[in-house]
Amino acid sequence: MDLLSDFAPDPDGLSEALGRLVASFDAPAEAVTAPGDLDLPAGLPERGVGSREALRVLAGPVLDGAARLGAPGFFAHMDPPTPWVTWAAAQWTAALNQNLLHPDTAPVARELERRVVAWLAPAFGQDGGHLVPGSTVANLTALWVARDLHGVREVVASKAAHVSVRKAARLLGLPLREVDVDARQRMDAGALGDLSRSALVLTAGTTTTGAVDPLDCGKGAAWRHVDAAWAGPLVFSDRHRPLLAGVERADSVAVSAHKWLHQPKESALVLFADSRRAHATISFTSGYLAEPNVGVLGSHGAAAVPLLATLLAWGRDGVAAHIDHAMDLADRLADEIRDRDELELRHAPQTGVVLWRAPGRDPRAVRDRLTGAFVSVADLDGQTWLRSVAANPNADPERVVAAAIAALEHTAT
Q1: How are strands ordered across the β-sheet holding 344-345?
Q2: Predicted pLDDT at 38
Q3: Sign of the C-alpha dihedral, residues 115, 117, 118, 120?
Q4: Degrees (nearest 5) of the Cα angle 69, 121, 237?
Q5: Please, are residues 73 and 374 in contact by the beta-carbon 8 Å criterion?
Q6: 3-state DSSP call for residue 379?
Q7: Which residues, other chains included, contact 410 with Cβ-Cβ below 8 Å and sequence gap of 6+?
Q8: pLDDT digits (tens, 9 = 90+) for 290-333
Q9: Does position 105 have pLDDT exceeding 80, yes or no?
Q10: Residue 4: its pLDDT value, please?
Q11: What is the C-alpha separation between 21 and 27, in angstroms, rounded?
Q12: For the purposes of burial, counting CB atoms within 10 Å of the CB of 267, is it exposed (0-12), middle (13-18) or buried (19 or more)?
């Protein structure tokens, strides 16, 4: 066995792997391998099959066993397809495996992350921050700073806030006070009460309905954090930026780049109005660290590279165009639903999230009978709705509605 050959580039092997990836996009979106069809050993093999054969074995399960997030009928979740430039950049970072924890292993990658944060933070009224794997970690990090820097004694959020806010409060030992919401799931700003010792979490794009809380409320709070995991990129659109009015006055903001910035998992940012003080509050040193370790993470890969590649390729205008297109898709879907007597729209979409149903029919049964289309479901106020999220630029609203109408013919009332 030649141990070192596994670490040298294999152009033919890489070319074959890339070819299989590209070819997989020609497969029908419905042809997804089921988990029970995996032809893999039950336990760790005693002898390996070699790198190329391993990829051949895994090509089916990995490439054919994935939902086609970019298929025209996919109008379901906050998980977008990724542009090809991120595939190339992510392959580079996987091959180089730099660890931003240590400057000597990632001298340029560290600067690239600083650069991408510097490009994005000002749009949210923030002066810096860092990358994290997702907004769950971003929310935890922001509330950690709020507790240790400003001595907050509770977390206040709406009842529609993301579950990660509850997780963060639990981990930080802070009580969570949940505030009522209106019919569209927006926070009732009149019910906030005393916030002088509170970290107020405002949501820009709730998971269920895409609602945006009044982001200028709670000015007396000890700390104001905006969870803009979903709707944050609206700030780059001239048409839709007003929906996030007030975000620039937050003390911290969370944004998931692996949602509306179309990045591979796991890519998000936690941003701060005063990042120097925030980072100093959550920095740790040790004898094996050349520089302080900031935040929750220890080892940290070069996740900024695919994001930087996308921003460089698209520019602000390109990001805005993709956001505007997504919002238009949601409006088109809403219009299609309104035009069908068999269907009901809960309310006009605010940030690309559409709730709809066929009155008198079980939404889950309708969803399960869809052919050539994919939607999710959500429970809200004791009712179940079909849920469509405009994350896929290739989504075809007309196809989705036509599939739903066809499914009604085979669904019991």
Answers
A1: 344-345, 353-357, 383-389, 376-380
A2: 78
A3: positive
A4: 55
A5: yes
A6: strand
A7: 369
A8: 788 899 999 999 999 999 999 999 999 999 999 999 999 999 99
A9: yes
A10: 82
A11: 11
A12: buried
The model's pLDDT over 18-38, given as tens digits with 9 standing for 90+, comes to 999 999 988 776 655 566 667
Q: How far apart are CA 309 and CA 120, in angstroms?
A: 13
Distance CA 153, CA 197 (A): 6
Q: Is 25:82 a contact under the CB 8 Å cutoff?
A: no
Query: Inter-axis angle of helices 397-408 and 304-338, to 10 degrees?
Result: 50
Positive or negative torsion for Cα 384, 385, 391, 394: positive
The whole-angstrom separation of Cα 172 and Cα 155 is: 10
Q: How many CA atoms lie within 13 A of 90 on its CB side?
A: 13
- Secondary structure letter of residue 131 according to DSSP: E
Residue in the structure block whose two tokens are 């109005």: 273
123 within 8 A of 236, measured Cβ to Cβ: yes
Amino acid at 292: P
CATH number 3.20.20.70 is the correct assignment for the domain at 90-313: no
Type of residue numbered 140:
L
**pLDDT at residue number 134:** 96
